Amino acid sequence: SDGSIRLHQMTSEYPLMQWNDSTKGQPIIALQWALTRPAVFFALDASSNIYVWDLLENDLLPVAKQTIPSEKVVAMTVLGEPEKANGLLGIVLAKESGQIDIQYVKKKWALP
């Protein structure tokens, strides 16, 4: 609820990494790992900002931020085919009106 993200290992109650105020205090609505690249995950905050984290490129801050200005995004999920090496990865966004938007991710964040 405060925009903090914690990375846990299943065998410990303490986080391996913790990023405080990663969304400038906005609650995180959804967080999804990339299906094709294990070091990448996406976070959606309550202000319809999508943050791209690539832990191999930068483990302190998101590597990109995309604002969806047209309408509030209420849900997010990731699609892709991890068994294929084509690097096709997309983000599905559900907007408040019920509209669904699919955005494809840059290859550098999608390739295995």
TrEMBL record:
One of its GO terms (molecular function) is dynein heavy chain binding. GO terms for biological process: intraciliary transport. Transmembrane segments: none annotated. SUPFAM superfamilies: WD40 repeat-like. GO terms for cellular component: cilium; cytoplasmic dynein complex. PANTHER family: CYTOPLASMIC DYNEIN 2 INTERMEDIATE CHAIN 1, WD REPEAT DOMAIN 60. This is WDR60 protein.
